[in-house]
Design a protein that fits this description.
alpha+beta, seven-stranded antiparallel beta sheet, six-stranded mixed beta sheet, 19 helices, 16 strands
Length: 660
């Protein structure tokens, strides 16, 4: 496929009619359009997408009319936006046009729905033949499938993500010619898919009236559905296992290179945990210290006064013969009652009476001895509590000092470790992720084993049902014929599947080899590209022991990787097209495609820009680049001899750009 020209009318800032003709010369196959930011480079790129597929990735994708024209429109006036592409595909020249009308109603300009494109092609006599409207999308998809368009019309953002997109598998298969085989396999289908070839044949068997046969057919259809569901689950499971295994390898590499950091991290975590625990203990000690102080400080500080009071009482030599808490009133009541508490009689003149009368001399107000004795006892108890207060306060204070010293030492050690870890990544999260991934892998592998066992059981049941069903189906000549057709179709599908797997694995290996060749030409270093079964691209770098690990990627390196991937794709497709095949070999056809790129060298350094500029014109049939002047300064000296056409975007206003 080659693009001969692009014609635009009132498309965004390209007011009026704008025509660009692109170089189709195999020796000078590069067309350069120079323009700075906001000059219209992205608009040009989206003009291709809008013409072919009716969609444009712009800030106002549903309003494409030039703003200056829109502002000048009067009520009832109409204008059109149009984009026209002339494309050569498989030696046939196609004219593809898409036009959209805009009408001013009152003070508002409205757009009509985006119409279908119109396609015509040039016949041998030079006359143009229109393609039927119902066939237009099919013809465009044949020229350049929509799924593949992002790989050949792309801007800076797409370049950075193109080799890691999840939809890349089908696009690569289409580009490398594998889709035809895959479509043939799907078309043949199986007995459970009623719309497939095998399904239609299978459902054409005459089993009417035979309940046993119907039962086996229904059971086999159910099992086929189960196997399809199991196959999808297995596919998802294997993809997840592959992703997790890849990440597991990355994490092991990270942790293997970070053992010292890991030990420091663990020590830091332990110190932080110990400090936290000790601070809690310290808080408890401080609380106990204040509690002891609050409860015992009065007695402790009153000790000198207590000692002085006791000394005074001792020097007073008061004979304290009274009974504690016995008052004059108590004795008088006993004398009046004439009987003691113990039951002994009290009467004038007996011993009990005389003793009680004598006791009156030692109770207030006759004596203060009893009061002094009670006061002395209270002072002694008060003083005894003070002695323990000092011991307890002293013990808590020493504990507080020990804890503060320990916490201070640990905090100093923690600061030293933090300084060492300052320039190293925190690997704790990697260890947590590693543990989680290992668990997920165990679960996924168990799930995969269970699915495989279930699939084997279901497959055996299908074979059993098929054998019984085949015996029922052989009851009529028509059924025998259909059974033979089914057997042939299933054998062809099996053969296609085997060849497809071999071919797909071979092409993926060839693609990886081709991408690595391109990468070596573009990159000034020592890394290697790896492509997995999902066509996801990973960069590897060698270790000292010849072991390879996943390489880190800067933005510039990622750009080089993705350019190498695109160049490898184009190169392999081109080679497949040119290879001569034997008649008995399965043919895979593909068509080379152009590369249309917006700001391809942004964020790439001078060396990589130079290397990329050398490689791309050699592998692609046609290169169309929208480039900023600053990037072109690096690329021009190596690619100028391959430039067949060049244009410059001239920004007249914010809404009007001309091409010269």
């Amino acid at each position: 496929m080659l693009i001969k020209s692009l014609r635009m009318k009132n498309f965004r800032q390209f007011k009026g009619e704008t025509v660009l003709e692109f170089s189709c010369d195999p020796e000078r196959n590069v067309t350069i359009i120079l323009g700075d930011n906001t000059f219209g480079k992205t608009t040009l790129l989206q003009a291709f997408n809008w013409c072919l597929y009716g969609k444009a990735t712009l800030d106002e994708p549903n309003f494409l009319l030039n703003k200056e024209i829109m502002l000048e429109m009067c009520n009832g006036e109409t204008h059109t936006v149009a984009v026209e592409l002339v494309i050569i595909n498989e030696s046939v020249e196609y004219l593809i046009t898409r036009t959209q009308r805009y009408k001013c109603v009152g003070d508002r300009v409205n757009s009509e729905p985006v119409p279908k494109a119109k396609v015509s092609y040039k016949e041998f006599d030079g006359q143009m033949q229109a393609v039927k409207a119902l066939e237009v999308d099919k013809v465009i998809d044949k020229i350049l499938p929509r799924d593949l368009s992002n790989y050949f019309f792309f801007d800076t953002e797409r370049i950075n993500t193109i080799s890691n997109r999840r939809d890349v598998t089908e696009a690569v298969k289409g580009l490398l010619g594998l889709s035809s085989m895959e479509n043939a396999i799907k078309h043949l289908g199986n007995r459970n898919k009623r719309t497939s070839v095998i399904g239609k044949l299978y459902n054409g068997l005459d089993l009417e009236g035979n309940s046993q046969a119907e039962k086996f057919r229904d059971q086999m259809a159910t099992n086929e559905s189960k196997r399809e569901a199991i196959a999808e689950q297995l596919k998802t499971c294997k993809e997840q296992i592959k992703d997790y295994e890849s990440r597991l390898e990355q994490l092991n590499d990270i942790l293997r290179d970070s053992r010292e950091v890991s030990e420091l991290q663990k020590k830091r975590d332990n110190l932080e945990r110990w400090i936290k625990t000790e601070k809690i203990t310290l808080t408890d000690c401080i609380n106990r210290y204040f509690k002891e102080f609050n409860e015992g400080a009065l007695a402790f500080f009153a000790q000198p006064l207590v000692k002085e009071a006791l000394d005074i009482l001792e020097d007073a030599k008061l004979d304290d013969k009274g009974v504690s808490d016995v008052t004059r009133k108590t004795i008088m009541e006993l004398l009046e009652r004439g009987k003691c508490l113990c039951g002994r009689e009290i009467c004038v003149g007996n011993e009990a009476y005389e003793n009680l009368r004598a006791e009156l001399a030692y109770v207030p107000p006759e004596s203060i001895g009893n009061a002094v004795r009670n006061y002395r006892q209270e002072l002694e108890n008060f003083s005894g509590n003070a002695q323990h207060t000092y011991e307890r306060i002293d013990e808590q204070l020493k504990a507080i000092m020990r804890l503060k010293d320990r916490i201070g030492d640990w905090e100093q050690e923690l600061d030293e470790i933090s300084d060492k870890l300052k320039d190293n990544r925190d690997i704790t999260r990697f260890e947590v992720e590693l543990f989680d991934i290992k668990k997920r892998l165990r679960d996924l592998n168990n799930k995969k084993d269970t699915l495989n066992r279930t699939d084997g059981i279901v497959d055996e049941d299908i074979k059993r049902c098929r054998k019984r069903l085949d015996s029922f189906a052989s009851t009529s000549d028509n059924n025998k014929k259909l059974a033979k057709y089914i057997a042939y179709a299933e054998r062809i599908r099996s053969w296609l599947e085997e060849n497809y797997k071999e071919r797909e694995a071979l092409i993926r290996d060839e693609l990886e080899s081709e991408v690595n060749k391109m990468f070596e030409k573009m990159y000034h270093g020592h890394r290697r590209v790896q492509i997995d079964s999902g066509y996801q691209v990973t960069l590897l770098t060698g270790m000292g022991n010849a072991q390879e690990i996943v390489s880190g990627e800067s933005e510039g390196l990622n750009r080089v990787k993705n350019f190498a991937f695109i160049a490898g794709l184009v190169s392999l497709a081109k080679r497949k097209l040119l290879e001569e095949r034997n008649n008995d070999e399965l043919h895979i056809t593909s068509e080379p495609f152009p590369l249309v790129m917006d700001a391809p060298f942004s964020n790439a350094d001078e060396t990589h820009t130079t290397n990329i500029s050398k490689v791309l014109p050699e592998v692609a049939e046609q290169i169309i680049m929208f480039v900023m002047q600053k990037d072109w300064n690096y690329a021009e000296r190596v690619i100028d001899n391959r430039v067949g056409r060049r244009y410059r975007l001239n920004k007249i206003t914010e809404t009007f750009t001309q091409v010269s």
